[in-house]
Design brief:
Blueprint (H helix, E strand, L loop, with lengths): L6 H9 L4 E5 L3 H10 L3 E4 L3 H4 L11 H14 L4 E5 L9 H13 L5 E3 L7 H8 L5 E6 L5 H4 L9 H17 L3 E5 L3 H10 L4 E4 L7 E4 L1 H4 L17 H17 L12
Helix pairs in contact: 2-4, 5-6, 6-8
Length: 267
């Protein structure tokens, strides 16, 4: 019988060089299936704003929405380690807000850890949250909550100055007490250098194969997202087409009187 994963299990995977598999989930059904499949970490991402709510970016997502999604996921989970994203403005304005909101994701949402975007500017905030005994995952490189500063979803670290700043950010996040670090949208070799220089696991998304683990948005890898698909996404299924076929067949059955049949009706 599998035991619930803890931060110690994640650390052991890193130390024994076992790759860490991470996927996003926002609801009970997805989380239950992932958990049964054996995913190591479920990230309750603020990407819910894009793939669930239909926003152009993650900025509109609120704390109440993140607590709702996190609670839905943790109800389903028996084995996986659950990390919840802290949404925009839940930690940037004030450290006391950051501590309170991190605590809410753990207390009300049931998360095992929280994730924050940012580097050197978040050292004190990360330290303040870890001082509350709440594990923190950092997130640097392409940080979606900074989409306006970056001028869109652009690969970061392609020039020497950006590369230097990302390396400095990775060290700052580690020194502040983060137990893991997401590297998003950076060149493969830079991600490899950062991974080799740190003593905490790195989780890549669009950062190549040299990280300690990988994360994808579930809706992207299942073929449920519409429109643009990033280069780094591998489509493991095309569920959108399967669902369209099922919906179309249902509509036809209803209109032609084929559903419900006798087997779906009561005497």
């Amino acid at each position: 019988m599998k035991k619930p994963k803890t931060i110690l299990d994640i650390r052991e995977m890193y130390e024994t060089k076992k790759k860490i598999a991470v996927l996003t989930a926002y609801d009970y059904p997805f989380a239950r299936i992932m958990d049964h499949a054996g995913i190591d970490i479920i990230l309750v991402g603020d990407s819910a704003g894009n793939v669930v709510a239909g926003h152009e970016n993650t900025l509109p997502v609120t704390m109440e929405e993140m607590i709702y999604h996190t609670r839905s996921v943790t109800r389903a989970v028996e084995h996986s380690f659950v990390v919840a994203d802290m949404p925009f403005l839940s930690y940037q304005a004030d450290i006391s807000d950051a501590r309170r909101n991190a605590g809410r994701l753990v207390k009300e949402g049931g998360a095992h850890a929280v994730k924050l975007e940012g580097g050197i500017n978040l050292r004190q905030t990360i330290r303040a949250i870890t001082d509350m005994d709440i594990p923190v995952v950092g997130h640097i490189g392409l940080t979606p909550q900074s989409v306006h500063r970056m001028g869109g979803y652009r690969i970061q670290g392609r020039n020497a100055e950006q590369s230097r700043k990302i390396k400095e950010a990775s060290e700052a996040v580690r020194e502040a007490g983060a137990f893991a670090l997401v590297l998003e949208g950076i060149p493969e070799l830079l991600a490899g250098e950062i991974t080799a220089s740190l003593d905490i696991p790195t989780i890549g998304i669009g950062a190549g194969p040299l990280c300690s683990g990988q994360v994808l948005v579930a809706h992207d890898m299942l073929g449920l997202s519409q429109g643009f698909s990033p280069k780094f996404v591998k489509r493991y299924a095309e569920l959108s087409q399967l669902m369209t076929n099922a919906f179309t067949e249902y509509i036809t059955d209803v209109k032609e009187g084929k559903f419900p049949g006798k087997e779906h009706s009561f005497n």
